[in-house]
Amino acid sequence: MILIDAIYINNSGGKVLLDYLIAELEKTDKQVFYLLDFRIQDESIKIKSTNKVIYSQASLMKRRSFYKENKNKFSTILCFGNLPPNIKTSAKVYTYFHQLLFLDLPKEMPFVQKKIYYIKTQILNNFKKNTDYWVVQTDLVKERLSQKYKISENTILTLPFYPPFDSQAILPKKEHQYIYISNVSQHKNHGRLMEAFSRFYDLHKKGKLILTIPDEAEGMLNIINTKRNQGYPIENIGFVERESLQKLYAESEYLIFPSLTESFGLGLVEAIENRCKIISSDLPYTYAVCKPSLVFDPLDVNSITEALSLSLQKNTINSESKVTNEINNLISCLF
């Protein structure tokens, strides 16, 4: 039996990938046991009656108890959330690693958050002996994971995967429409982006910026409302279902991506598949997955403004993806 341990995954890009993985596993004839975060138990996840799911609190103690009770029950385990099992098991274990904040923290991250992630890195270091292989989305993450935790690169598998859209939406592009599909974590850099877009709009009186800030992010929503009251065309549409997301990509000319750190950057790949041009941070994660149209220094508002201004030129090159979907190879490892 295969165990998918995704007890720490409940939102954002990780949840998108988890949903896709579950859907693909459910197409097979293999028996799968899912350990999932209790915060997603009300969602309509389609799991066959021959498979089993347990929803649990995302805590180290709950997870340890589960492994102590079931350490010899599974032939293969995929830990889908950075941390190997709390204890050594008899199974072949793969750990999917996708959080660059375990590797390098932005300098401006608040002290309390840095302390939290420091503790998490120590936990990961203690558990690393409990996995046989690591799975990452890019060679960049492979290299940095190996260096940070002294892990042999031979045990780190680069298997990028992402859910394709059901069909290709071909829509007319809305000229000078810029989108940023992202949650509101501090490293996502929304503040500098909005300031840069405001300066860009002051210069050219062109463009529209669309964001996907969740309702609970009151501070960021207040900034957006202030900008809108000042006459800037910045629109927040909140969480976007996948069907609507494809339409948004398809009709937008540019995806702008100012994040300070990413393990993959799912939005970059999705946007290119829907013919968006990419304006992204001049950082290694960008080049690991794509050839962007324009880049900027994400710590410099003037640099972001300049990139937006350059996007008005008619000869901006198209962006190109550098990754392919390896979901079948990932599933083959589990079998």
What does this structure look like?
The protein has 335 residues and is α/β, with parallel strands linked by helices. It folds into two domains: 2-158, Glycogen Phosphorylase B (Rossmann fold), CATH 3.40.50; 174-321, Rossmann fold (3-Layer(aba) Sandwich), CATH 3.40.50. 36% of the residues lie in helices and 19% in strands. The chain contains eleven helices and 15 strands. A seven-stranded parallel β-sheet has the order 3-2-1-4-5-6-7. A six-stranded parallel β-sheet has the order 10-9-8-11-12-14, with helices on both faces. It has a two-stranded antiparallel ribbon with strand order 13-15. α5 (190-204) runs parallel beside α6 (218-229) and α5 (190-204) crosses α10 (301-310). The model has no long low-confidence stretch (mean pLDDT 90).
Pick out its properties.
single chain, 335 residues, alpha/beta, Rossmann fold, 2 domains, seven-stranded parallel sheet, six-stranded parallel sheet, 11 helices, 36% helix, 19% strand
Helix/strand order = EHEEHEEHEHEEHEHEHEHEHEEHEH
Q: What is the CATH class designation of the largest domain?
A: Alpha Beta
CATH architecture assignment of the largest domain = 3-Layer(aba) Sandwich
Mean pLDDT: 90
CATH superfamily of the largest domain: Glycogen Phosphorylase B
Kindly provide the radius of gyration, computed on alpha-carbon positions and rounded to a whole number of angstroms: 21 Å
Q: Number of helical runs?
A: 11
Strand percent estimate: 15-25%
Let me know the number of strands.
15
Runs with pLDDT <50, length 5+?
none
Q: Summarize the amount of helix as a percent range.
A: 25-40%
**What's the CATH topology name of the largest domain?**
Rossmann fold
* Total domain modules: 2
Q: Give the oligomeric state.
A: single chain
